[in-house]
Amino acid sequence: MLTGLPPILNAEVRLLILGSFPSPTSLAAQQYYGHRQNHFWKLLGAIFDEPLYELLYAERVARVLARHIGIWDVYRACIRPGALDADIRAGKANDFAALLPQTPHLRRVCFNGQTAGKFAPRLAALGLETCVLPSSSPAYTLPFARKLERWKAGISP
User: What structural domains does the chain harbor?
Assistant: First the structure.
C-alpha cells in the first residue's frame, strides 16, 4: 500500500486542484507532479505567465499558494504498480469533508483527469463548484495547446 503526499493548502485557498495519486517519481521526490514530462507545472506557468516549471519546488508551491490555489489528490493511499491511473487498486479516498474547516474560502475544485474527476459528485455534494480538466500526464496524448485551452477555462477566475 502506497501513501500519498500531504496537501498543499492554507486558509486562503479558493481553488483546489485534485489529481488522482502521485507517480512513483513524485513519491520518491516528495513533490506533486515531480515527473519532468508531466505538463502540470508548464500548464499553470502558461496560465499565470510565470516560469513555474523552471523554479525550485518550494518556490512553485509558494507561487500557487500566493494565487490561492491548493494541490492535493483524491486518494490518500492505494496499491498501484507503475504510474498509470488505470492500475490504481484498493484506493482509499482523502477526507474531503475535514478539508472544509481548514479552507473556509474554498469554492472551486478542478480535477486533473478523469480518474480524479470521478470524485466530482462527492465534492459537489459538499457545496463546491467542480470541473474536470484533461490530465496533465504525458500518457494523455491531447496536444499541449488543447490541454492549455481547457485548463485556462477551468482555472482562470
Answer: 2-155 (3.40.470.10)
- 108: Cβ contacts below 8 Å, ≥ 6 apart: 14, 15, 16, 128, 129, 130, 131
**CA 7/CA 73 separation, integer angstroms:** 8
Per the CB < 8 A criterion, the answer to whether 32 and 89 are in contact is: no
Per-residue pLDDT in tens (0 to 9) along the chain, 157 residues = 999 999 999 999 999 999 999 999 999 999 999 999 999 999 999 999 999 999 999 999 999 999 999 999 999 999 998 888 889 999 999 999 999 999 999 999 999 999 999 999 999 999 999 999 999 998 888 999 999 999 999 997 5
102 close to 110: Cβ distance less than 8 angstroms: no
Catalytic residue, from 10, 38, 94, 112: name it.
38
Q: Which residues contact 139 (CB under 8 A, 6 or more apart)?
A: 83, 84
**10 belongs to the catalytic site:** no
Q: pTM of this prediction?
A: 0.96
